[in-house]
Amino acid sequence: MKLTKYEKARIIGARALQLSMGAPPLIRLSKDMHEPITIAIEELNRGVIPITVYRRMPEKKLLGEEE
Amino acid sequence: MVVKELVRVPPDRFGTKLEETIMDILKRGYEYRGRQEGGYEGKLQPELGTILAVTKVLDIEEGRVIPGDGAAYHPTTFEMLVFKPELHEIVDAEVVEVREFGAFVRFAHFDGLVHVSQLTDDFIVYDKKRGALIGKETRRVLEPGDRVRARIVAVSLDPEKVTNTKINLTMRQPGLGKFEWIEEDKKKKEKGE
Predict the structure, then answer these.
(1) How far is B30 from chain A (nearest CA, A)?
(2) What is the ipTM of this complex?
(3) Torsion of the alpha carbons at B69, B72, B75 and B76, rounded to the nearest 10
């Protein structure tokens, strides 16, 4: 499922914070990758972030989907 | 005792075995912003008693990401071994100290007080030199090192200050007292005295 730009921003933000707090990166880092945000964006592009988005739907159903 | 609680797993512990990490947090804990997270072993909680050990992690639910914190919060169900002195419970204890107002007895890791008036039906005299309490009629002696059986009559637990944790006991009931006395009383009863 395609993520909205808001969801993307939320995931990148959360993931970057995790990285900055010492979480091990899930991708092999190239030499010019130091910024947590850069790493988080790259991780998102490769689809390796284990975060699930629960969308709150109007029918009060929760729609879960892998990132 | 089974408990469910939200466990904070910090980001630097990601990528390790989640169950082991959570077990370690529950057992030993860590500091986060001046707050203690987990580390339940050896802690005293008024509702539960003392947590002797975290024995098993039963269930770990999916973690949640909370805005502003990079950690994952996992609702975790786990099992722990607790000891709580219950009112009216009978305990076997060891006398550790004797004062003029009563005897301090130790059971498990708690110290309780048996007041002089709650020792026996006999009138009790304090022997300063021996550090013992002696019954005037029966000549029964109670001194440190004696093993006794007693009933808990009052419990007040305070996790903040150990000195505020007070447990009072009585030995003034049939079948209670120093083990030797219990035996004597039994024999007397058999003889029909």
Answers:
(1) 15
(2) 0.73
(3) -130
